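Rotation project, supervised by the postdoc (A.L.). Task for the rotation student: set up a whole-complex structure prediction and record inputs and outputs verbatim in this book. Inputs entered:
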Amino acid sequence: MLAPLDPTPSLRMPTPADSRLPNPRSIAFIGGGNMARSLIGALIRGGARAGSIAVAEPNAELRDALARDFGVAVHDAARTAAQGADVLVLAVKPQVLKTVCTDLAKVAAASRPLVISIAAGIRIEQLRAWFDTDLPIVRAMPNTPALIGAGATGLIANDSTSAEQRAQAEAILGAAGRTVWIEREELMDTVTALSGSGPAYFFLLVEALEEAAVAQGLPREAARALATQTCLGAGRMLVEDGESPARLRERVTSPGGTTAAALDAFAAGDLRGLVAAAVDAATRRGRELSEQYS
Ligand SMILES: NC(=O)c1ccc[n+]([C@@H]2O[C@H](COP(=O)([O-])OP(=O)(O)OC[C@H]3O[C@@H](n4cnc5c(N)ncnc54)[C@H](OP(=O)(O)O)[C@@H]3O)[C@@H](O)[C@H]2O)c1
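Outputs recorded:
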């Protein structure tokens, strides 16, 4: 497990003072794997009380580690963890979500919790059908940098979700990075193609930069260090500078200079067209997977 990054001012964790969890006694995580662990860790570091969090996780080792590291209540069954919870965070793999929702349907119908699903590709209507009742539901699409507190999460809520519940969802997912609300659920496939799969695109670019420099004779270690730090530096400038990416690019591109020569080569290879085709392919695949789960 990677250690959390020190949050920059614009990527900081919520603090007890700005916590917007109106009733922090009762969040139940169903599934205590990677994503739940990072969200729980971020919430605790942000000031949530351990006593406010319960986790259901079948794996005893994971369960013990969550109890030991964060002091949260752990259960081996979803129903006992979910009993009386105001918020249910569904953090299991998409393949097991149907079983989990049908198992929790009675408990949920009785207490009407806010349901937050982070399962990739499972639509709100599908969750509603599995719970067999109209509940406030928020669907969230986080990405892997959430594991180090630098995630990007797209969120969408159904009409049954109150403003207070939207704020609760934002506070929970926002503990592990940035959140962005979207208004139309079909755009969740675009969010998946942009920020869900996005880290891999940047890893590929760093790989390609490293390969190109090694091919010109730079030692691999030096090439990796320079490419990696360049990626981090450019990312931080994007977040901290507040300028558009186009303006930042123009600022480092002198007419007739080295950067301009490289950008001309990218344009000749239609980099923008290639990126659009890649995002389109990921969006279509996301849609296909969603249909499979429905
Ligand atoms: N990791 C990411 O970067 C990422 C990004 C976006 C979205 N997501 C979504 O987040 C969800 C969780 O991903 P993850 O990476 O955290 O997966 P994970 O590490 O596999 O965690 C899921 C956990 O749920 C447990 N589980 C299975 N059935 C259960 C049940 N009936 N009740 C309670 N717990 C149960 C699993 O135990 P067993 O292993 O014993 O079955 C596992 O420990 C997935 O739906 C995924 O699509 C993840």
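Student's summary: Strands lie at 27-30, 53-56, 73-75, 87-90, 114-117, 137-141, 151-157, 177-181.
Supervisor addendum: Residues 209 and 227 are 6 Å apart (CA to CA).
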